[in-house]
Each structure stands twice: as C-alpha cells, then as structure tokens.
Design brief:
The protein is an alpha/beta fold. It has 9 helices and 11 strands. The protein has a 6-stranded mixed sheet with strand order 2-1-3-10-4-11. β1, α2 and β2 form a beta-alpha-beta unit. α2 packs antiparallel against α9.
Length: about 270
C-alpha cells in the first residue's frame, strides 16, 4: 500500500515538473523568461522622437511582454553604428540613401551587417520647411530670402544627415547654395537645428515639418516639390540576423496600422505613397 502511495506521489511530482517546463518553454516562445520582457531595439531618425515615444507607450500597454528600446540620432550615424555591429532589430531612416547603404539587394558587396531586404517598406513621408523663431520680425518668407540682407545666420543639417542633404538640394536648385555659405551653421541632426532656431541662435533654419510642429516654430515656407526632386520618404526594415525578428516584425507591422498612423499624422507625417 505504501509503495503504491509513493508511486502515485512520484508521478504527480513528475507531471508537475513537466508542466512547469512546458510553461517555461511557452514563456520563452512568447518573449518572456522568468518574468523578463523581450527587448526590441529600434534605431530611428531623430525627427521621429516624439511620435515614436507616443507609439511605444501604446504598444507596450497592448503587449506587456515587450520592451521597446529606442536610439534616436541622424540616419547616417545610425547606419554607421549598424555597420560597426551596433545591436538593433529595426532601422528607420529619414532617407533612402542610408537604408540603401545597408540593403544587400542594392549593394551586393555588403558584409553581414545589413537589413533584411524582404522586410523593407516605405513607412512615412515628411516635408522640408523654412522656419523662424516665434515672434521673429525679420520678415523672412521664402528660400530666396536666405540670400538677402534679411538673413544673417542660417541653421542647416550637415551633409551626413538627410535634412542637410535635402536642404542642399533645394538651395542648389535655387542657385544660392554657394552664396550663403558664410551665413550657415551646420547641425549634426535635425533636432540640433531645431533647437538653434527655437532659441533664436540663428534667424532661420531648414527642418522637417514634423519637427517644426513639435517645437512650436513658425513655418514661413513649405517645400512643395518645386525645388526638391527627391521625396522625403522614411524607409524602415528589420535588421538582418535580429534575435527577435518575429516580435520585431510585429512592431514594424504595428507602425503601419491605424493607431500608429493616427499618431504620425498628428505631428505632420503622412503615410508613404
């Protein structure tokens, strides 16, 4: 009788251990391990800061097993960090150039630090604007004014960042790029340019419509395609060899969904055509 009782207790203990192991396996599959959350690391252009932070709060509330970790900087800096082995699961650039540099379908000679070409999408569109500090009395109203006595100091992104590349294209097409160089102060990313304008360190600057909205700056002119042939498109993709590719893919899908789109549109982005 005692042997039967001991055998029954042993079986119950064994089933309990198997059940616990099954639960642990299930937790690992869903991204949780011993109560820990799954980290999804997103490298995103600095101009996405405000909207992506708002999206993070919503997504983590709906997906409590996920922790979104952002690195915001210029697209060129983020590209270089990925090339040098920086750990990221998703890359969102403010221009095609930086994404192309990591795309093996565009550059056949890339190493192993690349994006997953099959996951690449065009996520958003933005606009380049001429902005002035609140309360400015300079009378600046167009790109052409940059080459007049109305403007003594201009802030632009440098040539390594998309907003700087777009600005150079606009001003080159206007024929005033070389003439204004002694007035220009270059920023390392769009947020730095935005700050200089907001603090009236400069008379004006070229930034994105979304950054102007977030900083409460006065937009005096919005590029309508007359001087810029390159659309301001934000591509996004999974980074190749991500250890959490399935969950990162779900977040990338979410960024294209109605909740995220409403947030993006609220600050001036529009879905990419």
């Amino acid at each position: 009788m005692k042997r039967k009782l001991l055998l029954a207790l042993s079986c119950l203990l064994l089933f309990g251990l198997v059940g616990c192991q099954g639960k642990n396996d299930s937790e690992k599959a869903s991204g949780e391990k011993d109560g820990e959350k799954m980290d999804i690391i997103v490298f995103a252009a600095a101009s996405l800061t405000e909207s992506m932070e708002e999206i993070k709060a919503l997504y983590e509330k709906e997906n409590p097993n996920v922790n979104i970790i952002y690195t915001f900087d210029s697209s060129g800096t983020l590209k270089t960090q990925i090339e040098e082995g920086g750990k990221a699961d998703i890359f969102i650039s403010a221009a095609q150039k930086q994404m192309n540099a990591l795309d093996p379908e565009v550059n056949a000679d890339l190493g192993d630090k690349t994006i997953d070409s099959a996951s690449r999408i065009d996520l958003l569109e933005n606009k380049v604007c001429l902005v002035v500090p609140k309360g400015s009395t300079k009378g600046i109203s167009s790109f052409e004014d940059l080459n007049t006595d109305l403007v003594e100091a201009i802030a632009l992104g440098n040539s390594d960042v998309p907003v700087g590349q777009y600005s150079e294209e606009i001003l080159t097409n206007l024929g005033i790029w070389d003439q204004i160089q002694d007035k220009v102060t270059y920023g390392s990313n769009v947020k730095e340019v935005t700050t200089w304008v907001a603090e009236a360190v400069v008379d004006c600057g070229l930034i994105y419509k979304t950054d102007a909205y977030s900083a409460g700056l006065e937009v005096v002119y919005e590029e309508d395609g007359s001087h810029l042939e390159t659309p301001v498109v934000y591509p996004a993709a999974l980074v190749a060899n991500s250890e959490v590719a399935e969950e990162a893919g779900k977040f990338l899908d979410y960024l294209q969904g109605p909740e995220a789109t409403e947030i993006f549109e609220g600050v001036g982005f529009s879905p990419a055509k």
